[in-house]
Amino acid sequence: xxxxxxxxxxxxxxxxxxxxxxxxxxxxxxxxxxxxxxxxxxxxxxxxxxxxxxxxxxxxxxxxxxxxxxxxxxxxxxxxxxxxxxxxxxxxxxxxxxxxxxxxxxxxxxxxxxxxxxxxxxxxxxxxxxxxxxxxxxxxxxxxxxxxxxxxxxxxxxxxxxxxxxxxxxxxxxxxxxxxxxxxxxxxxxxxxxxxxxxxxxxxxx
Length: 206
Prior knowledge:
The chain is mainly alpha-helical. The protein has a domain at 12-62. The chain has 5 helices and 2 strands, in the order αααααββ. It has a two-stranded antiparallel sheet with strand order 1-2. It is elongated, with a radius of gyration of 60 Å. The protein starts with 11 loop residues before the first helix and ends with a strand.
């Protein structure tokens, strides 16, 4: 147990906790010195110690002291003598002759070359780690997703082109010129650069 440092103002709480052990002689040397050096400065701890000492005195007075009988002493000494006589006598160990061992001839060693293990066939592939398999599945799923969305975008573009063509055709108004002058007309082909498949007819009278 670590030594207890003395301070100017004693810790009466710590001393009070040590009083029961100190009263029955169960404290360590350091704890005993600590209690005895600071006990007078803690009246509560001093009163607690007096109570424990009174209890010890009352216990001694309440228990009658019995002297051992002569028969008990005779039996006790007889048991001690019997235990002493029954103890085995010490045996004298005789020195044993020193035997020098004879070295046995060492048999000649024959080196036998063990057949070397053949390497495994290269055709046997090592199992792919789980991480690589998961990465391959993720890449395949990404490619399939990209292909699906590209197909959807292309389909939407085609539908937009068809809708624009239908709108152009529907917007062409047909009309009849009521005039004695001859009717002239001309067919206008679409510009190849636009990529729109539509035709227009220009009609006039002059």
